[in-house]
């Protein structure tokens, strides 16, 4: 390459065909060192990009129109543009702002946060209120009131459950002298159990026995006999005879009056007067209704306080006999006295304090069923919750875990707690 050619290439003044172009290109076969101009977006044939979102412009509405929209705005029924116009206006107009605040508060009262579904316990509360306030044409003896109320509550529960839930598994539980015992059945099986044992009261009143002429005497034997003689496992059809029998029992004791309460009801190995037998059946109805409610996930509360108190009183009155039976069977420690305290005389006593709306205090004689509880000879004190005591008497709570408060003779306390659990049965 000559010197002239080199010079021309450096300063860009050459004009020959071999000169380097003045546009900054790198020569033939080389990319340009200076980028070419970019093509316009509009000339590329592609869709144009969306413009950026701009804040909405409030509607320009007169004051009267904006004021008329306050109700719709409080109910969130305005369009976006209308809501924006109202909110801008509320920042400038104090009178409309106060009115909007009052409307919003009113809307809050109309829209409660609770569910619109009916409370599952509503039926129970209505039944309790009706039973409490509606005067009966034929008065029901007070001692039959708990049975009437508890069978009505259980019937309401059964009304609410579906066909499949009648076969939900339920475990009947009780305390068999020394250890817990249980028997597996279904919801329908529990109702069959109540029907067969309530038949003891029906027989005593001269009504038809659900087991027929060859009905067994003990609650467990009657239940087993009924289960074997009927369709097993029982179905929801058992509700009809149980419901009819409970109604007949209530009607019969109402017509016979309070004097019938002294009539004896045999449980096989022991006997209760009718007024106590009806309380016993009310207690078992409540306990097994809780078993059913737990199996089908149904809310269920304890009985009314005055009914609960009567049930606890029955259990407290039965404790001395249960304690004597355990001593005779060698399951409880013998008393320190060499002979039984004569009937009607005071002896060693345990103070049973039951807390809660159905509670109270009872002095339990420890030395013989015929003795009288006396504060002068009190040797121990036990405190329990009312519902917890009932669950102990139903065999649903271990005796060792029942007492919330204990004071005094530990042996006497243990014997009474185990005697309370022994009141339970299948």
Strand content: 5-15%
The stretches of 5 or more residues where confidence is low (pLDDT under 50) are 2-27
Sheet with most strands: strand arrangement? 6-5-7-8
Quickly count the helices.
14
Q: State the shape.
A: elongated
Protein model, in words:
The chain is of the alpha+beta class and 426 residues long. It has three domains: 63-110, no CATH class; 123-296, Four Helix Bundle (Hemerythrin (Met), subunit A); 306-422, 2-Layer Sandwich (Nonspecific Lipid-transfer Protein, Chain A). The chain has helices at residues 3-11, 63-68, 70-74, 80-90, 94-110, 122-133, 145-160, 187-204, 219-229, 239-256, 274-296, 305-328, 386-393, 410-422, and strands at 169-176, 179-186, 264-266, 271-273, 346-355, 360-365, 372-385, 405-408. Helix 6 (122-133) runs antiparallel to helix 7 and helix 8 (187-204) packs across helix 9. The longest helix has 24 residues, at 305-328.
Q: Nutshell version of this structure?
A:
With 426 residues, the protein is of the alpha+beta class.
């Amino acid at each position: 390459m000559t010197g002239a050619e080199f010079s021309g290439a450096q300063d860009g003044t050459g004009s020959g065909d071999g000169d380097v172009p003045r546009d900054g290109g790198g020569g033939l076969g080389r990319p340009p060192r200076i980028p070419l101009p970019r093509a316009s977006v509009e000339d590329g044939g592609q869709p144009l990009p969306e413009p950026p979102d701009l804040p909405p412009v409030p509607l320009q509405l007169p004051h009267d129109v904006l004021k008329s929209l306050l109700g719709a705005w409080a109910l969130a029924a305005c369009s976006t543009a209308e809501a924006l116009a109202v909110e801008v206006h509320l920042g400038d107009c104090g009178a409309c702002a106060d009115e909007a605040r009052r409307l919003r508060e009113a809307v809050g009262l109309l829209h409660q946060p609770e569910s619109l579904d009916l409370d599952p316990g509503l039926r129970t509360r209505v039944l309790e209120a009706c039973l409490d306030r509606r005067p009966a044409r034929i008065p029901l003896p007070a001692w039959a009131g708990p049975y009437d109320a508890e069978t009505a509550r259980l019937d309401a529960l059964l009304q609410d459950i579906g066909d499949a839930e009648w076969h939900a598994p339920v475990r009947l539980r009780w305390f068999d002298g020394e250890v817990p015992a249980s028997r597996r059945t279904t919801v329908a099986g529990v109702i069959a159990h109540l029907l067969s044992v309530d038949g003891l009261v029906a027989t005593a009143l001269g009504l038809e026995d659900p087991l027929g002429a060859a009905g067994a005497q003990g609650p467990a034997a009657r239940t087993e006999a009924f289960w074997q003689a009927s369709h097993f496992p029982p179905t929801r059809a058992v509700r009809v005879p149980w419901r009819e029998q409970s109604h007949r029992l209530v009607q019969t004791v109402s017509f016979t009056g309070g004097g019938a309460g002294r009539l004896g009801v045999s449980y096989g190995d022991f006997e209760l007067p009718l007024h106590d037998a009806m309380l016993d059946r009310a207690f078992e109805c409540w306990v097994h209704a809780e078993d059913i409610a737990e199996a089908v996930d149904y809310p269920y509360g304890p009985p009314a306080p005055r009914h609960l108190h009567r049930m606890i009183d029955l259990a407290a009155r039965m404790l001395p006999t249960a304690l004597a039976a355990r001593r005779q069977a060698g399951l409880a420690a013998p008393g320190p006295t060499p002979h039984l305290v004569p009937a009607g005389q005071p002896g060693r006593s345990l103070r049973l304090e039951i807390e809660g709306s159905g509670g109270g205090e009872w002095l339990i004689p420890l030395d013989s069923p015929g003795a009288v509880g006396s504060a002068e000879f009190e040797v121990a004190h036990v405190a329990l919750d009312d519902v917890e005591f009932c669950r102990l008497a139903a065999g649903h709570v271990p005796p060792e875990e029942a007492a919330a408060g204990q004071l005094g003779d530990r042996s006497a306390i243990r014997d009474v707690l185990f005697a309370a659990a022994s009141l339970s049965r299948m």
